[in-house]
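Sample entry (244 residues):
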Amino acid sequence: MKRLLVVTEDASLVSRLQAEAAEGRWEILAVRERVETLRALYRYAVDTVVIDLETTGAHTAWVICEHIHDTSDVPILVLVSGRPNEQPLTALRHGADDAALREVTTAEIMARAANLAQHYDGNKDGSPVMIRDGVLIFDVTLQQVCCRGKVVNLTPVESQLLLRFLREPDRSLTVTELAEALWPDSGINDGRTVKVYIHRLRRKLQACDPDRQYIYNDRTIGYRFHGRPAAVLERNSERVSSPG
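Predicted structure, serialized as tokens:
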């Protein structure tokens, strides 16, 4: 059973999500403020976090997002009101992996949460494939990144961003190309939002490998991942081959 942590003061929202979750075999944990949220994340294995921005408040919501990003790779869905200061792009810039208007149906909220959780779990039915770049190893199946033997906690969006770079190292990618990789078919093509995730990914990679600069700014195009001789490892066949 999956577990959804909902940060809200709206009891009716919690009740509606609980009714919807019963159909999809989800457990709903409801908390009201920051301390309760951090305590729940420490005590329970959570698959997705939903933050109700309207009742939680922007400051508390962004603090929670930052804490989750710094300590885990649990994905975050933020519900926004749609007012000028509460737009989906605002939530994405502050670290949300997905954002939706608050008035969407509970069925859509649960569907979005399930989609994030699926990316978080990785596609365990696929053929296990890893991409190696120097000391960096990306397990595509598990959506897990290791650097110098230690797991790097990346959110689903950060993982997709790194995977896009690893598949085309040393090629400058435009903001449009990166946005399409992160939020396909969403129409989002915002340089500031992409820049936020570039900054977060760059910071996490530098923390594990401070002697190497991974991502460079290409002022005329976008961003470029400085790759090293890479290999694709197929664990099933135990062979290594150069990517072609």
